[in-house]
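== Sequence, C-alpha cells ==
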Amino acid sequence: MARKRRSKDQLKEIDALVERLREFIRLNYMTAAEVARQIGVRDTTIYDWLLGRARPANPDRIDAFLDSLPTENGSGIAPTGYQYREYKNWRGIPKPRRCPFCKQAKGVIRRSRGGLSGVCPNCHASGPKRETQEEALRAWNGKGSL
C-alpha cells in the first residue's frame, strides 16, 4: 500500500492537530488509552502520535473528536465543569487553593530555581514557575495565563 504524499502545509496542520490533542489530554486528566477508545484507534497509535514517532493517517477522526466535545468560555480547551474561584482569606488577601492532586493540603508559594512556584506540602506536587509571588499564586490557583 502506497503512502500519500503530503505538502508541508498539510503536515503543519496535522502537527497542530496532534498538539491540540496533547493539550486536551493534559488538561482533561484523561489517559491516552481512554482517548484512543473514543477515537477508535489503538492506544499505542495515540502514544506514537504524541511522541512524534508517527503522524495520523486520517486526521479527520481527531478533528471530529475534538470538535464534538463541549467548549467552555476561556482560553482554549479546559476541563469541563471547572469554575475559577478566587481563593481569599477573610481580609480579601489571595491565598493558595488546595492541591489539585491529593486535595489534602493547601499549596505554599516557594522560591525555586528560576522563579517562584506553588508546592503542595503533602504530596510535593509543584505548579508552574513564575517571576513574581502574585503570578505564581494565580498559576497555582488555575489562572496562570492571565
